[in-house]
Amino acid sequence: MQLDWVMSYMEAREIQESLPEAQKQLPFQLKERKCGKFSPELRNFALTLHFYSSAAYKYVRKIFGTKVLPHPRTISKWYSDLDGTPGYSAEALHAIKIKVDIEKQNGKSLLVR
């Protein structure tokens, strides 16, 4: 059974306004992006979406076009750039340092367990 789903202009507008900036830009990426690097926001969105569901990632690429999001092999290359050695990664320690600095500015301290 096929369901017909029609959305009013106001509903579409409300959904669009609730989206983070990276997701708002997806439809426009198809026209603007020719070749080159992806924006940090779009890269983060692509990595997160692919991490949670590769099927959803493939669906978004199919609906919006293959130029909107990077190919899954590109995502694999991005993951291979991360240091996978045992222990705390430099990226994790850097993120913790940023959080500590923010809390210090607010007169608070950060406890990491």
UniProtKB/TrEMBL annotation:
Q: What InterPro entries is this protein classified in?
A: THAP9-like_HTH
THAP9-like helix-turn-helix domain segment(s): 14-78
Pfam families in the cross-refs: Tnp_P_element (PF12017)
**Protein name, as recorded:** THAP9-like helix-turn-helix domain-containing protein
Report the source organism: Callosobruchus maculatus
